[in-house]
Amino acid sequence: MKTASKKVINGWAMYDWANSVYNLVITTTFFPIYFLAVTNEHTSFLGMKFVNSALYNYTMAAAFLLVAIVSPILSSIADTRGNKKNFLRFFTLLGSLSCCALYLFDSNHLTLGVVCFMLATIGYCGGLVFYNSYLPEIAAPEDRDSVSAKGFGMGYIGSVLLQLIGFGLVLAAKPLGMDESLPIKITFLLVGIWWLGFAQVTFATLPNSITTVSKHASNTLTEGFSELRKVYAQVKQLPVLKRFLRGFFFYSMGVQTVMMAATIFGSKVLHLEATLLIVTVVIIQIVAIAGAWLMAKLSGKYGNLRVLISVIILWILICVAGYKMQTAMHFYLLAAAVGLVMGGIQSLSRSTYAKLMPETQDTTSFFSYYDVTEKLSIVIGMFSFAYIDDLTEDMRNSVLALVVFFVIGLVWVVSALLKQKQTVLQLG
Description:
The chain is an all-alpha fold. It is built from 14 helices and 2 strands; from the N terminus they run αββααααααααααααα. Strands 1-2 form a two-stranded antiparallel ribbon.
């Protein structure tokens, strides 16, 4: 096959520009800071009492659990139904309008804020399934790395740009005599408008997808989970991949939880100013790109699993340091370390999985299995973090508990490396 025209490639990459603002602006910086500001330390939701930071993490866990449940269904649709653009539109509308609705969220409308946050998360994650599945349709195998990288770069630039716009609004609030919460609420609205608006470029340029199955023997739900079972059966026959996925499952609990809870930790435990937290997160994003590049270089020299083992050890040290940190300077130094290993472990995990998986035409189903593994690990990680925070009312204990997940993940990745060496010796 030939790679699609430059117009189509740019249109596809534009969706990363459009939706990445949710991931950076909503889940990482402005929303968690605002959520803690408008809720009480101990708040009621659905008739139950929660520590506000724990409620935030429970909400994230619930959203990812829903995504993990529907992901196999979505991958089946993407592979067999040929109507992925319509579903991409649906999840774009769901996510962007939910972000816009967060403008109405305040201390008197807690349920609205929680529900809209969940729906925005589902819209973002659900849309990614269809967005990613377009890549093999528009790019030849030899061009997929560069096309994928272009989307990542566009997403980074777009999200940082809107982050800076929101930051400018926050800084201008006092001189203009605005209420302190208004700039943040306007930023929520801008995220939704940005996401929906720029996505129209993608919808206008992407081709209609092709149906790969002309006759369906069962409904979408059955086909989706049937595909997942088929992949699971294959994974069981691949000892190195099986061990790696078990390790990935456990260390992802720690990685994703640290990334999603870092802002809340800095705000609630260290009482850092919102502006400093926002600047810190932007710096983390920049360092993460350098980290991803560095890990890719190292993996080419020393091998993926060896580099992953080193990175997991660094994550363990970060969690121990996070438990002990006391000052803003400690937080900034640790944030730089997180940025370095954050981008590296994410990109390296995905490329390791791609190298270890068998040659197959069911790439969407295989990556759906990878996605479900990651989402379930996030659910357990966020729930554990929230439960320990709620139980002990000290988030430091939650950070320290993440060490357990990293250690178990480390054991499995070491096991995968040893099995890989054994396999090479047997074949040699």
